[in-house]
Amino acid sequence: MSSIINEFNEYREKMNTRILEDNNKVIKRIFNLDTNAYMEGALNVKTKELLGLVASAVLRCDDCVRYHLETCHKEGLSKEEVVEALSIATLVGGTIVIPHLRRAYEFWDALEENVS
Predict the structure, then answer these.
(1) How many other CB atoms sit within 10 Å of the CB of residue 46?
(2) Among candidates 26, 6, 20, 23, which has minimal Cα distance to 66?
(3) What is the pLDDT of residue 1?
(4) How many CB atoms lie within 10 A of CB 100?
(5) Comparing C-alpha atoms, which of 101, 5, 2, 98 is closest to residue 53?
(6) Residue in 82, 61, 63, 60 with CA at minimum distance from that of residue 73
(7) Angle at 72 (CA atoms; ends 69, 74), nearest 5 degrees
(8) Other C-beta atoms within 10 Å of 89: how many?
(9) How far apart are CA 20 and CA 37, in angstroms?
């Protein structure tokens, strides 16, 4: 697996574990709400992940963008679907989103390389 993907996942896992060790009720509930929000419902998981990706890009959260990109990839979304969603994010967010778009492309390319 690409180092960019490994580094992201290892750090995320390490710090999520550390955060949850404190057993803070509010933080645990927020984590649980986040998990449940992206489960199958009236909208399918793929649609929810694309929505999360767009919101994350507009809010300029690279960690969130990476998380949603990886989940989109695991869910079988095509590059064309992901890029179309990112194009909406760039339109809505404006040119300030472009640096995050660059990093999103880099991360998606790493995900694609891992399949080959």
Answers:
(1) 15
(2) 6
(3) 60
(4) 22
(5) 101
(6) 82
(7) 110
(8) 24
(9) 19
Amino acid residing at 79: K
Point out the residues of the chain with pLDDT beneath 70. Answer: 1, 116
Cβ neighbours of residue 85 closer than 8 Å, sequence gap 6 or more: 50, 53, 54
How many C-beta atoms surround the C-beta of residue 48 within 10 A? 19
- Give the model's pLDDT for residue 115: 77
Place of tokens 């645990």: 28
Q: Measuring CA to CA, how many Å separate 97 from each of 39, 54, 55, 92, 101?
A: 27, 10, 11, 9, 6
Which one, of 88, 55, 52, 79, lies nearest residue 68 by Cα?
52
Residue 58 neighbours by CB distance under 10 Å: 18
User: How far is it, in rounded angstroms, from Cα 51 to Cα 103?
Assistant: 18
**3 state DSSP class of 41:** coil
